[in-house]
Design goal:
Elements: H1 3-24, H2 29-45, H3 55-76, H4 83-97, E1 102-107, H5 112-122, E2 126-132, H6 138-146, H7 164-175, E3 178-182, H8 184-189, H9 197-220, E4 224-229, E5 234-235, E6 242-243, E7 257-263
Parallel strand pairs: 1-3, 1-4
Antiparallel strand pairs: 2-7, 4-7, 5-6
Helix pairs in contact: 1-3, 1-5, 2-3, 2-5, 2-9
Bound molecules: zinc ion.
């Protein structure tokens, strides 16, 4: 089986666990986010910031861990080359299946725990795909995406350093959609407000809530939303500061996962 199929397989089963978690709990969306974030930190970094009391959370943690094991294999074997282009092709194919108008949102940074909350909110309406951005940086993404066959004959190919705004605009042009860039998460990365885990949850949830509102407005107006992100972000567990980069000597990284998703 292809590595990306392996990841998709784990992600599909992860989404079922998220629905189970939602059915079992009766908490606010922000509390759900706090729990999901803590679960991902447990799965990826092996750090328990809060006790995971619900058995379904242990399943979610194990599956997140599994995704990062598969990613380590992908990186060790240098197989990430085409992943962003393949993933982009796949989400564009999904979007064009629907007769609705679409809206493209390109996020500067969006991590797996954010996607888990989107799946908690939008349930079966969401189809996430994860690509690998091996450097975990915007530049790496812009460089990689520029090479995608889908952009043949477009302006992106001619520009040395296409910006995320330009990428959003050109993807939108290809599928006849409107577009915008969302950079609240990148702002969180440069924030100095974080003092502890609660502060981290509050800051990230504010960014996510604004994104949720944007998505809901478009869904209510009959749009399909195509969301692309250039990379995730990592959390320094000593001071809860956020950063996004990855080097081959470093441990597991959230930054290297670039999520792409369709919400209908
Ligand atoms: Zn970025």
């Amino acid at each position: 089986m292809h590595y990306y199929q392996l990841i998709s397989h784990v992600v599909d089963s992860l989404l079922k666990d998220i629905q189970e978690f939602k059915n079992l709990t009766n908490v606010s969306v922000k509390e759900a986010y706090e729990t999901l974030l803590a679960t991902v930190l447990d799965g990826v970094y092996g750090r328990k910031v809060i006790a995971l009391q619900n058995p379904v959370l242990n399943k979610i943690s194990e599956k997140t861990h599994r995704i990062f094991e598969i990613l380590a294999e992908i990186l060790n074997r240098g197989l990430y080359g085409l992943s962003i282009c393949d993933a982009l092709r796949e989400v564009i194919d999904i979007v064009t299946l629907y007769p609705n108008r679409s809206h493209v949102i390109v996020c500067d940074a969006l991590a797996i725990h954010d996607i888990l909350l989107l799946s908690y909110e939008f349930e079966a309406r969401i189809r996430p795909i994860f690509a690998v951005n091996p450097g975990g940086k915007t530049k790496t993404y812009e460089y990689m995406i520029k090479q995608c066959p889908i952009f043949r004959g477009t302006l992106i190919r001619e520009v040395d350093e296409p910006s995320l705004t330009m990428i959003a605009r050109i993807v939108a042009q290809i599928i006849g959609a409107s577009s915008e860039k969302y950079d609240e998460f990148d702002r969180c990365i440069h924030s100095s407000q974080i003092k502890d885990f609660q502060g981290l949850v509050t800051l990230l949830y504010q960014a996510l809530e604004k994104l949720l509102i944007k998505v809901k407005i478009h869904l209510n107006a009959g749009f399909t939303v195509l969301m692309l992100a250039d990379h995730g972000y990592d959390i320094n567990l000593t001071n809860y500061a956020l950063y996004h980069r990855w080097s081959p000597r470093a441990g597991p990284s959230l930054s290297i996962l670039a999520p792409l998703l369709v919400i209908k």
